[in-house]
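Readers outside the structure-tokenisation community will struggle with the description of the input data as it stands. Showing the layout once, in full, would remove most of the difficulty. For illustration, here is how one protein appears when written out as sequence plus structure tokens:
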Amino acid sequence: MDVANVFFLIGSLLSILAVIRDRKILRGYSLIGSLVTFLGMFLCLIYFIQIALPFSIASSFITSLYWLIVTVYVTYNKIRRG
């Protein structure tokens, strides 16, 4: 499980760097896709907390937080644009 979380963490960090460089990238993100990804990562985080895997908890927390921020941002833009 830790190996998969390394890949999730690397992917999230690369996405974070891309968003920092150009926030307009998020305009193409799907609200439903972002929400489902966040929920999936959040459920994984809860599982890792229950079985006490510290590295997995840390990496899943970062990934879950990223997808939460993306979901909130996409939702905000969708509501603002109408």
Summary: The longest helix spans residues 54-81.
